[in-house]
Amino acid sequence: MLTYDEREPFPGTVGRELADSVQAYPEVVKPSAGTPNVLLVVLDDVGYAQIGCFGSDVETPTFDRLAANGLRYRSFHTTAMCSPTRACLLTGRNQHTTGMGGISDNATGFPGFDGRIDKATGFLSEVLRDEGFATMAIGKWHLAPREESDLAASRKRWPLGRGFERYYGFLGAETNQYAPDLVHDNHFVEPPKSEADGYHLTEDLADRAIEFLNDLRNVTTDKPFFMYLAPGACHAPHQAPREFIDRYAGRFDKGWDSWRAETHQRQLDLGILPPGTQLTDRPEWIQEWASLPEVERRVYARMMEVYAGFLTHTDFHVGRVIDHLDTLGDLDNTIVVVLSDNGASPEGGRHGAFNSVAWYNGVPLTLEAVLPKVDLLGSQQSHGHYPYGWAHAGNTPFQRWKRECHEGGVADPLIVHWPAGTEARGEVRSQYLHAVDIMPTLLDALGVAMPSTIDGVSQVPIEGMSLLESFTDPATDRQRVTQYYELLGCRALYHDGWKAVAYHPMRGQLYVPGLDPDAPFADDRWELYRVADDFSESNDLADVEPARTREMIERWWAEAGRHGALPLHSSRPVLVERPAHYEPRSRYVYRPGSAVASPAAVDVRHRPSVTIADVEIAANDEGVLLAHGGRFGGYSLYVKDGCLHYVHNVLGQQRHRVSSPTLPLGPHRLGYTYTPTQNYAGTVDLIVDGDMVASGDIPQTTIYAYHLFGEYLCIGFDDGTPVDDTYVSPFHFTGLIRTIVVDVSGEKHRDVQVELEAFFATQ
User: Fold this and answer.
1) Do 110 and 10 lie in a common domain?
2) What stretch or stretches form a coiled coil here (predicted)?
3) N or C end of the chain: smaller count of CB under 10 Å?
């Protein structure tokens, strides 16, 4: 059989007849026999000390088993935030080189921060697809800007546009674990069962991973695969089945100070920390556990129980995938890499949260908001997060946390399991490496060279380096010598065993009293650590070695300029609408279909509006006509018990309803008008065939967002969680909807200060 590379000219002969012709077939690209598979497991907001094999007493038997039969890297580093780290992992380039200087949702108009990874920075999935691998992504994506998250958008930055052949998961930073906004390949889908039937996203993702593997192995037993498995855990909302949470009852009653000290000792005993590593001090602005009132200790301990249950539940379902690989006979020759994308998260603030969406709307997270609902934490009724005291403990032995460039933000657990590729079992590696090094290391292990072009596009050079040698040689001196860091104005530079780091306060994240988020970057104090000997950044040498400190700062500026990390910005963004493929309009006409992603949906907040649905109602018809948001904030227009109802849900704490008299059957134009009476309040008039049939006050409306990353606008149903507690989602309308017209020609009220605070809170 004559074959040829399809990129080359046809080598056969085309004659007038078959007898005069020579056939030739394009070659099928097949990796060589025995090529390993790759499973990349990316956890979310899991701190350095929160996995068992890194010192935690949280039960993670799957991750511990992988570590016991493989390697742990004590000096693995990320970017301190999700989108940038994931961009580094999948491209092998630094975050700003890819344009992902921050999270994709809050892109700014500079090349290093535009949130758009272009084809010149090819993905690992694109390289391996072209080498004949099956490529699959499951779970969190968060690598496309918000204005490309709707069904009219280009999919070129969705998973199937970046080399993955199959996808099932969610596009944004977070989603409700019981009622997620799911995407299958390139379209939205509803979960396979409801929260009432026991649905949980992590279980669903594991089911889908097993399904994808079975689909592959039902056809071919030797085609290698690359699976990117990114559960939503343990990002907020912290949600897990009650039986996983309750197994931790009382486990954290000693509090974060004792837990941190005990974890530090376990880390030393396990050898995950270098001998003599000090435990950094707890800052005075994090509460001393012993000084807390009993009621606070009870609530905060329960929040940690929820988090621990969430992590153990995740470990269990990742374990199902690992066990299935073993059943298929693939586990030994699969390179399994498990890591977290950044340090533990402080986004619960001082007191933690029952509904963390409140924070995005300028509502302080208070203990009083949690107390009446402690028993519901972790359930479908909650959207919770733990206090920052637990985040600090979760990053033991380091300072600080997610979003910042101290080790608590950028040092993360890394496990590598590949029995066929290394004889190491349970060993700890000390080489310094960064997320950019994962892709070149995997390519090296697979025997695949990085191509100079992908899909005809010349490639930006890989900035990571292969650390494959460390798989077999624990003493190799091959490691990263220099790495810069920048996130939200915080900066750091690692170079040859030294680290310089500067913290810059950010509005909305101001944990340290007395600091000014508007202070010039030049006023930030740089610290200096000899991390080769002072692993935890305990001894600041900046005043002792001023010349070295200046040298490190200058090197940071050079690295930042070379990689596109400028201009520095933190609390000075300009709130402008970014270019999008759609334009805001004064009149929206909707018809039944899939949900409309929030950035592209009509915005009725704080402005006069008229909504009219052209419908036909028969006996017993009911359901949602139009809804935006969910259990933790939003509005809904629906028919139930023969009447028309409007509800505005404020953060799940208040629901203001207006209801009509009984509706006659037949064709109707049903809707409402909203008239603002003050900044965040108004009146609603229900309309039936042009007549006002009911009216009511809405004394409080949602200030900034119903939900930041999901709970989209729905026509004819209410996806995710229900806006009102009088029905159960999706509550599809059983009558006929022809159109729903929403007029928002009235001027919108804007509170720029509130919008700025919310912007910073979402970073």
Assistant:
1) no
2) none
3) N
Q: What is the pLDDT of residue 401?
A: 96
Instruction: Provide CB contacts within 8 A for 290, sequence distance 6+.
Output: 255, 257
Percent of the chain that is helix, strand, coil (3-state, to 5): 25, 25, 50
Closest to 570 in 3D by CA, of 530, 616, 516: 516
Three-state helix/strand/coil letters over 641-652 = CCEEEEEEEECC
* CA–CA separation, 167 and 183 (whole Å): 8
Element (H, E) at 738: strand 736-743
> What's 77's domain CATH number?
3.40.720.10
pLDDT averaged per 10 residues, the chain (length 763): 91 96 95 96 98 98 98 98 98 98 89 95 98 98 94 96 98 95 96 92 98 98 97 97 98 98 98 98 96 97 98 98 98 98 95 87 86 96 96 98 97 98 97 98 98 97 98 97 96 98 80 78 96 98 98 98 93 64 93 94 93 96 97 96 97 95 96 92 95 96 84 95 96 97 80 48 50
Q: How far apart are CA 87 and CA 92, in angstroms?
A: 8
* Domain of residue 543, residue span: 483-563
Domain co-membership, 267 together with 332: yes
Q: Tokens representing 763?
A: 């970073």
Distance CA 177, CA 57 (A): 24
Asked if residue 574 is part of any domain, the answer here is no
Look at residue 399 and tell me if it is in a domain.
Answer: yes
Helices assigned H by DSSP within 93-186: 124-130
Residues 43 and 172 in one domain: yes
Same domain, yes or no, for 650 and 724? yes
Tell me, yes or no, whether 417 and 543 share the same domain.
Answer: no
End-to-end C-alpha distance for the chain, whole angstroms? 57
Joined together, the tokens standing for residue 514 give 């007395």
Same domain, 317 and 442: yes
- Tokens 């992504």 locate to 137
Residue 122 in domain = yes
Reported pTM: 0.95
Is the distance from CB of 64 to CB of 72 less than 8 angstroms? no
| Contact residues for 652 (Cβ-Cβ < 8 A; gap 6+) | 355, 357, 383, 631, 632, 633
Closest CA to 162 of 181, 183, 186, 188: 186
Distance CA 755, CA 525 (A): 29
Q: What pLDDT does 756 receive?
A: 46
Structure tokens at 678: 């003050």
Environment class of 9 (CB within 10 Å of its CB; exposed 0-12, middle 13-18, buried 19+): exposed
Same domain, 20 and 144: no
How would you label 251-276 residue by residue, b for 16+ Cβ within 10 Å and e otherwise? ebbebbbebbbbbbebbbebebbbee
Q: What are the angstrom distances between the C-alpha of 234 and each of 177, 483, 762?
A: 10, 27, 17
